[in-house]
Design brief:
heterodimer, A: 350 residues, alpha+beta, Rossmann fold, OB fold (Dihydrolipoamide Acetyltransferase, E2P), 6-stranded mixed β-sheet, 5-stranded antiparallel β-sheet, 20 strands, globular, B: 283 residues, mainly alpha, MetI-like fold, binds adenosine-5'-diphosphate, binds magnesium ion
Amino acid sequence: MSFLDLKNVTKIYPNGTKAVHETSLSVDEGEFMVFVGPSGCGKSTLLRMVAGLEDITEGDINLDGKLINEVDPSERDVAMVFQNYALYPHMNVYNNLAYGLKNRGIDKETIEQKVNDAAKLLQISDYLQRKPSMLSGGQRQRVAMGRAIVRNPKIFLFDEPLSNLDAKLRIQMRLEIKKLQQKVGVTSIFVTHDQVEAMTLADRLAVINNGIIEQLGTPIEIYDNPKSLFVAGFIGSPQMNFLDGNIKNKTLSAEGFEIKDIDSDFEGEVKLGIRPEHLSQSENSLINLKVDLVEQLGSDNLVYGHLKDKKDFCYRCPGNLTIEKGADLSLNIENNKYYIFDKSTGKRVN
Amino acid sequence: MKIKPLQIIAHIILILGVLLMVVPIWISFASSSHDSVTILTEGMKFHIGDQLARNYNEVLNEKGGWSEEVTAAKMFINSFIMALGIATLKVVISAMSAYALVYYRFKLAVPIFWLIFITLLVPLEVRIFPSYKIVSDLGLTNSYTGLILPLVASATATFFFRQFYKTIPDELLESAKLDGANAWSFFIDFLVPLSKTMIAAMFIFMFVYGYSQYLWPLIMTTAEEYWTVVMGMKIIYTESYEGVALPRTAERFAYIILSMIPPVLVVVFLQKWFIKGLIQTEK
Ligand SMILES: Nc1ncnc2c1ncn2[C@@H]1O[C@H](COP(=O)(O)OP(=O)(O)O)[C@@H](O)[C@H]1O
Ligand SMILES: [Mg+2]
């Protein structure tokens, strides 16, 4: 049994909303797990069940070899960082950090020691006497982290902690969280709807949709090998291009082109997925793209255009290529990196 | 800075308001420093006279009542104890019951809240006979307990605390729970400090309410040692008024002025909290 074990966990809210369906998942000790999915998919609910803030309708949660379904949140030894930080507004930073320790009956000197260590680690030593209302967003974020770290809990839970920060700070804090987690080595679960955040932070990530884990794996596994239409569309930026197609006798015919000898026995209606970065310009082209707009990012260009049937399409190319609006590009798929999904079930078939 | 006409009008209105509040108090004070004869013959005074010390000394220390034993000072103390007890218990009880109503999501919370709310329609004066019966059956007449106890429940304060607690974000409770806070420590460590302002305000209102009680102490007390200020105002200087003696108007004014001091002290003492909370919301 691993460190944290969820077995067939289901959550039905009193109003009948089924937020999580029979979810099973295990997290190893020291692992950084990320739950990613669109808003309302049940990520927070799952996290809050681990924390003990929501009752578990069905299933079991084991933490460190102990069934915790009925254990009070205060007894679970988990720490959580909330989206709005939930700092204690009437206490200064020192007491925000110390409060959890005081409740555990730890003596004053030890508390002081621990708070000072955590404050140093997070570079908030200078603000210990301030109230949260006198801190900037980033500083509050650190205090929230400090409050979690100082207790040395079994597991850290993060519920979209970066979404209240501006873009630059978000990237910086993202890095810091990752570094901190590696340094402290505490098992962590991080919830986010931002796939870039998920990819960069995770040791493993769980892509969640409609209360179900669609796919579980390392970021690279999921990027390289999405198992469903949803995962393929959700992970990767800019989004994967999807084209309608049909397979007969191992030949896929899409609007305007064909791919022969595909690696699948599937027959019928499909969606063909191609990532913008898996395309290149070449003579013997598959796809003809009419350019509508070019976004120059410096290192890369994002080329937005449409195909013959007006379908929107995106192509990512190195930044040193100059591409004009209105140009006609002939594109080929690099190394046969395309994904085929059953149109009716969304399951990967190649 | 340019002063706009609107500001001038606003200030005039405010100044008039202030005068309306302050002038009667000043007249009472000024009149309390004259001889009763002067007041009776010349009317109320605007300026300070020469009898200030004498009048106040007399009021505070003269033994009155049928037993000739109760002094005004004793009545101030009684009223102060009664008001303090009522205000403290009202605040404590309402804060705690509001806590239960908001944070313990039992099914009857809403009906119970409305039941409490409805008691606003049944003030003590309406239920005074049953209340008296209960208190006297408990043997609590002529005691501070008897003066205080029937008045300690407050629907108004419960209502205000409830509304305030409802504005506190859930994450605060959840965060505190994960930090190991239990139900009691969440109340003491979070709700109480966060509602400091409200507690101060409620305490002031409830103190004044307790201080100005008239009917209940009147019915409750037969022993003069439990007389309160408001009762005294009615009783103390009329009983010696036996036709020949002059009404002791100046002393009455002195008594009125003295009777204002305890509530004023409470306000002065708590206003720091009160104002701080008004200008700096800590939520
Ligand atoms: N307290 C609640 N009562 C009823 N439904 C809820 C409650 N909290 C969340 N839900 C519903 O459960 C689903 C999952 O919510 P949540 O876990 O918050 O999603 P996420 O965090 O992924 O955005 C949503 O449909 C939401 O409306
Ligand atoms: Mg959420």
